Amino acid sequence: VQLQASGGGLVQAGGSLRLSCAASGMIFSISHMGWYRQAPGKQRELVATITSGGSTNYADSVKGRFTISRDNAKNTVYLQMDSLKPEDTAVYYCNAFGIGWGQGTLVTVSS
């Protein structure tokens, strides 16, 4: 199983980024997927999840700003991040529930 995350970078506060996580070696369409993040000195925390059926769930801190989606034809899960804040700065990881983690992509939001 391989989960390849991409799309991180440096952005100013108020800006947007879209993260992608391409999956291989697994049956993506039946897998629940999630995005997590870990800021320096903090524990990894849940950002958003999406079930195989497309139901979504978000951490309170990102509701209304982030959108998780999936494209089963491309075996890819996305995280659209809008209205970014400095406190969103973290390494973002994608997760396939019960299967594994991606390598992480760094998001830095400057004030």
Helix/strand order: EEEEEEEEEEE
Broad shape = globular
Structural class designation: mainly beta
Give the number of helices. 0
Question: What separation lies between the terminal Cα atoms?
Answer: 37 Å
User: How much strand content do the residues show?
Assistant: over 45%
Mean pLDDT: 96
Show unreliable segments.
none
Gyration radius, to the nearest Å? 13 Å
User: What is the percent of helical residues?
Assistant: under 10%
Largest sheet: 7 strands, mixed
Beta strand count: 11
What's a quick, concise take on this entry?
This protein is mostly beta strands. Helices cover 0% and strands 53% of the residues.
Topology overview:
Layout: E1 2-6, E2 9-12, E3 17-24, E4 33-38, E5 45-50, E6 56-58, E7 66-71, E8 76-81, E9 90-96, E10 100-101, E11 105-110
Parallel strand pairs: 2-11
Antiparallel strand pairs: 1-3, 3-8, 4-5, 4-9, 5-6, 7-8, 9-10, 9-11
Task: Give an account of the 3D structure.
With 111 residues, the protein is mostly beta strands. 0% of the residues lie in helices and 53% in strands. It is built from no helices and eleven strands. The chain has strands spanning 2-6, 9-12, 17-24, 33-38, 45-50, 56-58, 66-71, 76-81, 90-96, 100-101, 105-110. The strands form two sheets. Strands 2, 4, 5, 6, 9, 10 and 11 form a seven-stranded mixed beta sheet that branches. A four-stranded antiparallel beta sheet has the order 1-3-8-7, with no helix packed on it. Strand 7 (66-71) and strand 8 form a beta hairpin. The termini are far apart. The mean pLDDT is 96.
